[in-house]
Write a structure and sequence with these properties.
188 residues, alpha+beta, three-stranded antiparallel β-sheet, 4 helices, 35% helix, 27% strand
Length: 188
């Protein structure tokens, strides 16, 4: 009977483990843009970026990286010194960032990087929870609770969990029936 309980507990717990989302394990605010560039003779070139985790750059300077949203409004500004940065500068991800603008100390734009695939909020007036939008990272789209998407995603999780529980109970029922059947045959 002890083995039966252990098997039941393993089956039930495995069903709940599969429902963890990526943001439950690593929150979005732990992601960073790592901007890579070449700096030679006072000129920045070959700018690209990666999404990384870890520490952000701490140095400051008179050059600026501005992260803009889909409406080209600045959502974050970071000052840096490309001579000190050694071609790499790391800043926190802006959930609705669509582009990064690099400007020199004179305020002249010297580079633009499209942040394709890194944004969450598209400011279209519809709260798209399947794309990661929520009240915190996209208040323009999610100011009112979108009950339809909550209901759909919640029902999918509950339905999957109930399926695992039902299968586990069916397995336990079959094991008990087989065990009793074998016990009754041994007694005869």
């Amino acid at each position: 009977m002890k083995k039966l309980f252990i098997i039941f507990a393993m089956v039930v717990s495995s069903g709940f483990v599969s429902y963890a989302k990526a943001e439950d394990v690593l929150p979005r605010n732990e992601f960073n843009y790592q901007f890579n560039f070449e700096f030679r003779d006072g000129v920045i070139s070959n700018v690209d970026y990666n999404i990384v985790t870890g520490d952000i750059s701490q140095e400051s300077g008179d050059w600026t990286i501005t992260i803009n949203n889909p409406r080209t409004e600045a959502v974050a500004d970071y000052n840096f010194d490309p001579a000190i940065s050694a071609g790499v500068f790391i800043v926190p991800v802006s959930d609705n960032g669509t582009e990064a603008i690099f400007t020199n100390p004179q305020g002249v734009q010297v580079a633009r990087v499209w942040l394709a695939g890194s944004r969450v909020c598209d400011d279209n007036g519809a709260c798209e929870r399947d794309s990661g939008e929520d009240e915190q990272n996209c208040p323009a789209d999610c100011s009112v609770v979108d009950t339809a998407s909550i209901t759909q995603s919640g029902m999918a999780r509950v339905g999957g969990a109930l399926l695992h529980i039902g299968l586990a109970l069916a397995g336990v029922f079959i094991l008990v029936a087989v065990t009793r059947s074998l016990d009754s045959r041994r007694r005869v």
